[in-house]
Design brief:
The chain is mainly α. The chain has five helices and two strands. The chain has a two-stranded antiparallel sheet. The two termini are 12 Å apart. The model has no long low-confidence stretch (mean pLDDT 96).
Length: 132
Amino acid sequence: MSPEKYRKRLEKKDTKALIKKATEVFHRFIRERDKGQPCISCGQFKELEAGHYYSAGKFRSLKFNPLNVNGQCKQCNGWLRGNLIFYGKGLMDKIGQKELDKLHVIAGMERQAGHYKFDRMALIELIMKYKQ
């Protein structure tokens, strides 16, 4: 299907459906990007999921931020609830203090502003960017 036809199909979807599709394509992108790398938290080479440093539920503005989402094993991501102390250390090694500070600023701004609302067109652009 051509990109134009695909975009037109996406434009017919409601925001909830676009968030679901964006999550699917973005998580696939993260798993592919981090394939062959160790879990960001524990350092073990296992099958990776897309793990969020700042929770996707609480920090919606960071849900699709590629700095905030990294390959994480199922144990760290799920059972250890993100294993955040070690995630933070791994993230610092991966992206550096300057980029980590940017994430902290975005999270702080969202915390102050309250509810974050997804923009339909931004979701469509995200899907188009990360679909494979």
